[in-house]
């Protein structure tokens, strides 16, 4: 293992290889705070992308363990760099000059754990209110009395400062194009955006702390609330993380059902995005055309799961309910129906000259920048990188299925649009194959009633509608997770926005924002 | 250059006309919405409304024996169950079964955790009330016969 | 003689006011119904037969609402803006001939009058954007002003083409001159350019950059509520009517048509054009402001100029 790590981060560094198990981390090593920068600089030059930065509080040892989780677009390989920091005075040099996109991760980890990232480009709080005392994800955090309702995050007006001329435009938290409670402070010069500064945290619920206070089962419904548009993918990531950690088996039929339903969920998410994106560009009708077809998916999923949006359907070792032949028949009918509808989507939007002019060449992301910011999902594939968790780390039955990963050419909004539209077709293909081959049998294996995950760490990724959704689960053998980190795709995807929005027209910045397919509660968690 | 200029205009106009064809076709096709509340859609079997207690068919009493599994499983802690044994019965029966519907996330974990399938889902989705309090303490026992009512009335008579 | 003239003007103004209100009720209903059907919905269904009175109900609600002005708004401009937008409509409607005899007031330069008054709409938008002390409003207002020249010049060039064909600025005479062949068939290019220009002039999608609700919340009328908002609304639909009426007179032969009485033909043609504009709105995404300017200067202007020159040369020969 150590040779593999050497290969990535190079020789001459003091590091100790950590035991790597089968739970989704391929290479792991521990180094000290002073060597972390060199190791990560090497990793950057190797083209690795920063999946996430997070920490775990080991209260009894008096240590904070900082994790850098690095992914690779080309090879299925996940590298974990662990650094033990002193709990009383945790300090580490910032790497935001090496990975510009890591700033947000550092800000988040900093405010949650009280880690001081020295020389950071930006050390403001990201998700938490400015007047919160203490570090909520430390194990000894004692919350003060709950703040009164409606006083979560004070709204501060920004004034245009001297060095940034022009005026300040507050885009959000209530704005038609921010799809939720995202606020972007725009420094404007007429119609041009000089600088964009997203302010997050209006929908912050501290889900990761909630997870520490819930049993594994109880956390299940919460996962669906993070990204309500691909709830099943969140279900999937959570149950898979626990299954891997505990070594639960999943019957084959359940895996097929999971794939069918989560691909349906992906299509429904993409259809909603199709409409919402066009709404951002000022087209109204595609929104309801997308909705009309999405409604059929919701009907199908309601048939099996009983709910329409925030499903709570997957269970440890299987799924909650079996599907019947009627569902499978109706799903096949839907596949045929959507195939017949797609040409009209393309007539209405794809070929439209106004749409082309609005999206082509706007918000171009190249591969290298994507790696800096940890972009994943259709946003990345629009830039021509065929990185998809379903192919890179095939989970469930994806390895047995025949499907392609559509990639774009230019990395602009138009490419991202095309990738998602093609993904709908690929998902239809997957559903068809899965229905054709679905075996009979059990849908749930026997798992203990009270789940106590053995000690260990699992990092399990799922390709959600928006990209790489990774659950990092640390267990100390308790009924409750010791630490659960949700690496959400929209968070990293949005972190590139300030860079893309610079010197663009306001209309273009909103096209860019729309093309990311953001779900704000997922970012805020 | 001039040909590409003309070509661009013609192609652009053509693409606009293709879009207009889609919308006019949609306009002449059937609508897909339902005029609620005048029309209803049938709910699927597994529709998950708020939870409700399932009665024993013969007596109409709740199946529930107040074990409290559901209350412990609930992630939002929105179920309150208390129970005692009615006179002469072998098992407990609930005396209070309150659902705080303002907190409930309709996940259905309680229904799954019930050892005797005493919980089910209601199909009532069109609930409205003038105050939050109306749903903070929904009494799920109110719609069922109670094994205590005869007992209570007896006590009253004696008192 | 003078008294009769005054009476005539008062009566026709009252008629126009009724006409404007009725038109707004109808067009808004048509718009909402069309939008609904194009999106597989029903549109309004509750108030009146298939929701035909929905606009009236909305109007009553809007009128009964409080008019709120932002604390730092320039109150005089803020209140003036919707009035400036709406009032010129009443004058602009006067020279429009519904038939050879039905028109409020005939002038020899009716065409110029209507086009000049159309510009006041933009003034209203600018005042609203400036007066409401809102950055979104101001951006919307400046966008409206920024695009004027880009469409007004091609618009005037196409109008001139028609004027030299008809040999008159009087709307009645222009309509009369098309008894046989409509100008839309003689001047298809001018007709198309004119259609694009009126969509631009009325700030309708795909050229609703001044309103652009996904970018600028509601653009120039972000801060407006109640009656003032409904006046902007009324103005928008009335300008649509005037622009469509002008197009009918110049290109679709005015009131000429077989069997049906002349005013019916006129109204039918106007509503066909209105439907076309509604159809555009519910089909296309929004054009970006610089692309619109590019289109105005690089496509509309040269083509309309060439069209004008060719027409002039052909007529001279």
Question: What attributes characterize this protein structure?
Answer:
heterotrimer; A: 525 residues; alpha+beta; Beta Polymerase, domain 2; Cytochrome-c3 Hydrogenase, chain B; 2 domains; 5-stranded mixed β-sheet; 4-stranded antiparallel β-sheet; 41% helix; globular; C: 317 residues; mainly alpha; 69% helix
What does this structure look like?
The complex is a heterotrimer of chains A (525), B (159) and C (317). Chain A is of the alpha+beta class and 525 residues long. Chain A has helices spanning 2-9, 33-45, 102-113, 207-212, 216-226, 231-246, 252-280, 285-305, 325-350, 353-359, 367-373, 378-381, 389-392, 413-437, 489-495, 497-501, 506-515, 520-524; strands at residues 15-17, 27-31, 49-58, 63-71, 78-86, 91-93, 116-118, 167-171, 183-189, 192-199, 314-315, 318-319, 456-464, 467-475, 483-487, 504-505. Chain A has 2 domains: 5-118, Beta Polymerase, domain 2, CATH 3.30.460; 207-524, Cytochrome-c3 Hydrogenase, chain B (Orthogonal Bundle). In chain A, 41% of the residues lie in helices and 17% in strands. The longest helix of chain A is centred in the middle third of the chain and has 29 residues, at 252-280. Chain B has 159 residues and is an alpha+beta fold. In chain B, strands 2-3-5 form a 3-stranded antiparallel β-sheet. The longest helix of chain B is centred in the first third of the chain and has 27 residues, at 2-28. Chain B is elongated, with a radius of gyration of 28 Å. Chain B starts with a helix and ends with a helix. Chain C is mainly alpha-helical and 317 residues long. Chain C has one domain (69-316). Classes of the chains: A alpha+beta (525), B alpha+beta (159), C mainly alpha (317). Chain A binds chain C through residues 167, 169, 175-177, 188, 190-191, 278-285, 287-289, 292, 348-349, 352, 354-355, 357-358, 505-508, 510, and chain C through 35, 38-41, 135-136, 139, 142-143, 205-206, 208-209, 212-215, 217, 281-291.
């Amino acid at each position: 293992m150590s040779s593999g790590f050497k290969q990535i981060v190079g020789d001459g560094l003091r590091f100790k290889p950590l035991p790597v198990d089968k739970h989704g981390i391929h290479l792991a090593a521990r180094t000290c705070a002073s060597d972390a920068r060199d190791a990560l600089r090497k990793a950057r030059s190797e083209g690795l992308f920063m999946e996430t930065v997070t920490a775990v509080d080991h209260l009894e040892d008096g240590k904070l363990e900082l994790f850098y989780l690095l992914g690779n677009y080309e090879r299925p390989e996940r590298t974990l760099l662990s650094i033990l920091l002193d709990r009383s005075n945790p300090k580490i040099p910032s790497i935001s000059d090496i990975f510009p996109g890591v700033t947000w991760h550092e800000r988040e980890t900093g405010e949650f754990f009280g880690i001081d990232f020295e020389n950071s480009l930006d050390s403001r709080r990201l998700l938490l209110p400015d007047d919160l005392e203490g570090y909520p994800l430390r194990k000894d955090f004692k919350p003060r009395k709950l703040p009164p309702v409606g006083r979560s995050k004070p709204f501060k007006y920004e004034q245009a400062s001297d060095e940034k001329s022009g005026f300040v435009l507050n885009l959000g938290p209530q704005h038609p194009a921010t799809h939720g409670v995202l606020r972007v402070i725009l420094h404007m010069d007429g119609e041009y955006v000089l600088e964009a500064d997203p302010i997050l945290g209006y929908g912050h619920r501290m889900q990761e702390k909630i997870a520490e206070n819930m049993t594994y089962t109880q956390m299940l419904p919460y996962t669906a609330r993070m990204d309500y548009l691909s709830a099943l993918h969140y279900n999937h990531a959570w149950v898979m993380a626990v299954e891997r950690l505990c070594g639960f088996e999943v019957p084959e039929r359940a895996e097929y059902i999971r794939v069918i339903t989560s691909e349906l969920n992906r299509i429904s998410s993409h259809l909603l995005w199709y409409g919402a994106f066009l709404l951002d560009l000022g087209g109204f009708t595609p929104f309801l055309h997308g909705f009309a077809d999405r409604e059929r998916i919701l009907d199908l999923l309601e048939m099996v799961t009983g709910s329409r949006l925030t499903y709570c359907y997957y269970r440890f070792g299987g799924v909650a309910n079996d599907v019947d032949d009627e569902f499978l028949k109706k799903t096949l009918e839907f596949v045929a129906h959507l195939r017949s509808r797609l040409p009209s989507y393309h007539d209405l939007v794809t070929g439209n000259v106004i749409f082309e002019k609005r999206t082509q060449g706007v918000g171009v992301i190249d591969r290298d920048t994507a790696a800096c910011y940890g972009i994943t999902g259709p946003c990345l594939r629009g830039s021509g990188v065929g990185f998809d968790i379903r192919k890179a780390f095939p989970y469930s039955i994806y390895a047995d299925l025949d499907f392609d990963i559509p990639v774009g050419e230019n990395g602009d909004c138009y490419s991202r649009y095309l990738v998602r539209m093609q993904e709908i077709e690929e998902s239809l293909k997957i559903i068809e194959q899965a229905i054709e081959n679905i075996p009979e049998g059990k849908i749930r294996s026997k798992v203990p009633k009270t789940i106590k995950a053995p000690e260990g760490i699992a990092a399990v990724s799922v390709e959600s509608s928006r990209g790489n959704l990774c659950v990092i689960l640390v267990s100390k053998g308790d009924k409750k997770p010791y630490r659960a980190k949700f690496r959400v795709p929209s968070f990293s995807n949005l972190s590139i926005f300030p860079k893309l929005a610079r010197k663009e027209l306001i209309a273009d910045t909103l096209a860019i924002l729309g093309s990311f397919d953001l779900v704000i509660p997922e970012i805020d968690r | 250059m001039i040909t590409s200029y003309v070509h661009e205009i013609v192609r652009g106009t053509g693409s606009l006309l293709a879009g207009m064809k889609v919308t006019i076709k949609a306009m002449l096709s059937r609508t897909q919405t339902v005029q609620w509340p005048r029309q209803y859609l049938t709910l699927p079997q597994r529709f998950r409304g708020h939870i409700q207690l399932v009665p024993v068919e013969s007596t109409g009493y709740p199946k529930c024996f107040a074990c409290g599994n559901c209350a412990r499983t609930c992630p939002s802690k929105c179920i309150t169950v208390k129970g005692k044994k009615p006179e002469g019965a072998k098992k407990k029966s609930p005396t209070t079964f309150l659902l705080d519907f303002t907190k409930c996330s309709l996940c259905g974990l309680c229904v799954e955790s019930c050892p005797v399938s005493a919980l089910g889902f209601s199909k009532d989705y069109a609930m409205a009330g003038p105050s939050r309090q109306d749903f903070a303490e929904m009494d799920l026992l109110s719609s069922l016969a109670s094994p205590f009512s005869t007992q209570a009335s007896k006590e009253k008579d004696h008192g | 003689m003078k008294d009769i003239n005054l009476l005539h003007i008062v009566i026709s103004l009252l008629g126009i006011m009724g006409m404007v209100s009725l038109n707004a009720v109808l067009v808004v209903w048509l718009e909402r119904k069309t939008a609904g059907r194009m999106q597989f919905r029903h549109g309004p269904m509750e108030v009146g037969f298939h929701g035909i009175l929905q606009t009236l109900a909305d109007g009553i609600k809007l009128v009964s609402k409080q008019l709120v002005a932002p604390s730092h708004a320039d109150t005089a401009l803020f209140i003036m803006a919707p009035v400036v937008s709406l009032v010129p409509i009443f004058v602009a409607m006067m020279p429009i001939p519904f038939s050879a005899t039905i028109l409020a007031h005939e002038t020899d330069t009716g065409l110029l009058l209507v086009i000049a008054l159309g510009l006041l709409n933009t003034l209203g938008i600018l005042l609203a954007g400036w007066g409401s002390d809102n950055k979104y409003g101001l951006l919307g207002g400046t966008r409206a002003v920024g695009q004027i020249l880009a469409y007004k010049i091609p618009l005037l060039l196409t109008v001139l083409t028609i004027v030299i064909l008809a040999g008159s600025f009087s709307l009645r005479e222009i309509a009369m001159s098309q008894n046989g062949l409509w100008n839309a068939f003689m001047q298809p290019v001018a007709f198309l350019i004119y259609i694009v220009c009126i969509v631009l002039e009325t700030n309708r999608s795909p050229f609703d950059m001044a309103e652009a609700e996904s970018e600028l919340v509601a653009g120039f009328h972000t801060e407006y509520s109640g009656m003032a908002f409904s006046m902007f609304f009324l103005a928008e639909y009335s300008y649509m009517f005037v622009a469509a009426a002008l197009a009918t007179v110049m290109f679709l032969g005015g009131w000429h048509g077989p069997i049906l009485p002349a005013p019916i033909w006129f109204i039918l043609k106007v509503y066909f054009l209105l439907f076309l504009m509604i159809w555009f709105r519910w089909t296309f995404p929004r054009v970006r402001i610089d692309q619109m300017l590019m289109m105005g200067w690089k496509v509309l202007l040269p083509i309309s100029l060439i069209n004008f020159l060719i027409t002039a040369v052909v007529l001279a020969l």
